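$ ./design --mode recover --in tokens.txt
reading tokens...
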């Protein structure tokens, strides 16, 4: 009897040692693993709290500010050593008249940080370069860092009547596919916090707007008082994971966090039918059967149609990125190629900047065209400016 009791105790001790070892190993892996950090739910909520505090504080030294409709936008009148936002809310060293002068083609450019020109100073941005090299072109830069194409479209709808443009440039970047199905950024990238509106595709194929869930600073203060209520935003966010925010084991166990994180990454890349991206690393491509791609294409259709209905001319510009160019060099096809094929099939005027970069490359490496944060360098902006200016000549 005593022998059996000792065996049971030995087995329990052995199991405990194994569990402790697994837990310790998991925590070490979490600490040293490359890529996005794996935070506990309480750590994510602390990051969220800091983001809400910054949102409410509205620091005038920040280049962006809270916007109840869009989530955030650029701060009109902002002036730093690198970036200047004019009083009209455009990245420019000057202000614009209500209409362009005779003989000047005015272009309103909407999009995210690639349109805005993040990581370089004002004189290096593609839009400024075009205006300097081509006095008969005006580029109204409505870009906002971090925007999805949905937010860019909503800004267009709000401001299209302010300044009279001849051409509307719709700036699409590869990363926007993920942003289109995201409402709260901490569900997608745990080290960040922001909220935004999004569109969903209804059963009849039309788009339905899901408004920004934090439309006022008072609403932000409510989440600041009760951070755990942020889970309510998961209803319309494709990246919300109940196993992270509603699972006590995820909070308590490093092994649980690691296992759930690995599962989610596999699910998002290979299993979820609505995943934005499909394929193995290095051979990834847009998932044309998923909800994100359907939203992207329907949003493009709606935007182009609205521009044409207003008597203006659209131009969709794909601001390619470092990862897309790297993939094209290896496999001869960007991961967003299906989107370009969609534009071609619809007959929408478009420009894929990957073509300009590849034509300029020769045998040189592509790294000099990008900054540490992967936005265009001054050299990359110069290539983009030349390609866009050449394409705009066809609108005269």
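writing sequence...
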């Amino acid at each position: 009897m005593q022998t059996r009791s000792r065996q049971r105790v030995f087995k329990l001790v052995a199991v405990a040692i194994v569990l402790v070892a697994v837990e310790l190993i998991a925590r070490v892996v979490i600490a040293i693993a490359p890529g996005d950090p794996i935070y506990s739910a309480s750590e994510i909520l602390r990051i969220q709290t800091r983001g809400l505090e910054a949102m409410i504080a509205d620091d005038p030294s920040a280049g962006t500010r809270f916007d109840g409709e869009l989530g955030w936008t650029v701060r009109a009148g902002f002036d730093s050593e690198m970036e200047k936002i004019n009083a009209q809310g455009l990245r420019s060293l000057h202000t614009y008249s209500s209409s362009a002068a005779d003989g000047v083609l005015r272009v309103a450019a909407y999009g995210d940080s690639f349109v805005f020109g993040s990581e370089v100073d004002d004189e290096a941005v593609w839009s400024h370069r075009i205006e300097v090299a081509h006095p008969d072109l005006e580029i109204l830069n409505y870009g906002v860092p971090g925007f999805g194409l949905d937010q860019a479209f909503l800004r267009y709808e709000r401001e299209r009547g302010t300044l009279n443009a001849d051409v509307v440039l719709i700036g699409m970047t590869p990363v926007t596919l993920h942003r289109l199905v995201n409402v709260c950024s901490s569900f997608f990238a745990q080290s960040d916090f922001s909220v935004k509106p999004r569109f969903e595709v209804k059963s009849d194929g039309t788009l339905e707007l899901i408004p920004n869930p934090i439309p006022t600073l008072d609403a932000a203060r409510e989440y600041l008082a009760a951070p755990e209520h942020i889970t309510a935003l998961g209803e319309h966010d494709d990246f919300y994971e109940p196993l992270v925010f509603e699972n006590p084991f995820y909070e308590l166990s490093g092994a649980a966090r690691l296992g759930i994180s690995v599962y989610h990454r596999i699910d998002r890349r290979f299993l979820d039918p609505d995943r934005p991206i499909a394929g193995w690393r290095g051979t990834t491509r847009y998932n044309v059967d998923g909800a994100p791609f359907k939203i992207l294409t329907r949003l493009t259709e709606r935007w182009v149609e609205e521009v044409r209905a207003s008597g203006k001319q659209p131009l969709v510009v794909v601001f390619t990125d470092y990862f897309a160019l790297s993939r094209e060099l290896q496999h001869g096809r960007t991961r967003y190629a299906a989107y370009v094929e969609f534009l071609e099939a619809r007959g929408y005027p478009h420009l894929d900047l990957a073509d300009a970069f590849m034509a300029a490359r020769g045998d040189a490496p592509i790294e000099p065209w990008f900054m540490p944060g992967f936005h265009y360098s001054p050299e990359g902006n110069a290539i983009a400016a030349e390609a866009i200016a050449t394409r705009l000549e066809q609108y005269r």
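exit 0
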